[in-house]
Amino acid sequence: MCSLDGLFANNRAWANQRVDADPEFFTRLARQQAPRYLWIGCSDSRVPANEILGLDPGEVFVHRNIANVVVHSDLNCLSVLQYAVEALKVEHVMVVGHYGCGGVQAVAEHRSAGLADNWLRHIEDIAFKHELRLGATLDDEARGRRLVELNVVEQVANVCRTTILRRAWYRGQRVEVHGLVYGLADGLLRRVGMSVNGGQAWDERYRASLMSLA
Predict the structure, then answer these.
(1) Would residue 2 show up in a list of annotated catalytic residues for this protein?
(2) Which residues contact 172 (CB under 8 A, 6 or more apart)?
(3) How far apart, in Å, are the Cα atoms of 35 and each of 42, 55, 204?
């Protein structure tokens, strides 16, 4: 017996349920994808984008990495962003962190995560930059939650600073960037900071977002 037989059975059951509910579902899905949303989130298996948003396959374009980081040298993330904005014409880019993020918590507690430490240097930079906002009086859990929020604000700013978003806004394309945090304990999404569209200065919204966390 193949060790994946259970997953294949689940897949067949899911596909049958889809067809029973909507006989044209897969035919329509195969023809095109036309999502309005790009989700840039964490790789954590407890944070499934489609399910959290209540959307079907084809309705949200997804990029995931450890701690939902947007780095200007990461061609994987930038390629996804470029395709979403320029080819799919998404209207909303959502940077989504989550409370209880293992990568962020490792930084908050000054713990090693092995090879991932090299990637988490980006989060360490944010912790160092906002050392006063994190506060020495906060316990590890509270520091982790605050660092999750600060990380989202910083990554929203990084998205806005890309040449991809700058070109899109220069062309007059309607695309808005949002910061969100997901709560593992209650399943709810929360706004973090200010959203940014082409008619607003990203740096002003960035400063306002930081002030909102004070």
Answers:
(1) no
(2) 198
(3) 19, 10, 29
Query: Among residues 12, 31, 46, 121, which one is catalytic?
Result: 46
CA distance 149 to 101: 11
Predicted TM-score (pTM) of this structure: 0.93
pLDDT in tens, the chain (214 residues): 579 999 999 999 999 999 999 999 999 888 878 899 999 999 999 999 999 999 998 999 999 999 999 999 999 999 999 999 999 999 999 999 999 999 999 999 999 999 999 999 999 999 999 998 887 667 889 999 999 999 999 999 999 999 999 999 999 999 999 999 999 999 999 999 999 998 778 899 999 999 998 7
Annotated catalytic residue within 92, 101, 145, 205: 101
E-strand stretches of the chain: 37-42, 60-65, 92-98, 176-182, 189-191
How much helix, strand and coil, in percent to the nearest 5, is found in the chain? 50, 15, 35
The four Cα atoms 132, 137, 141, 147 give a dihedral, to 10 degrees, of 0
Cα 165 to Cα 70: distance, rounded to the nearest angstrom: 13
Among residues 42, 77, 92, 122, the one annotated as catalytic is 42
Catalytic residue among 44, 92, 122, 146: 44
Candidate list 63, 98, 146, 178, residue with the active-site label? 98
Q: Return left, alpha or beta for 113; rule: phi > 0 is left, psi -120 to 50 is alpha, else beta.
A: alpha
Does residue 42 carry a catalytic annotation?
yes
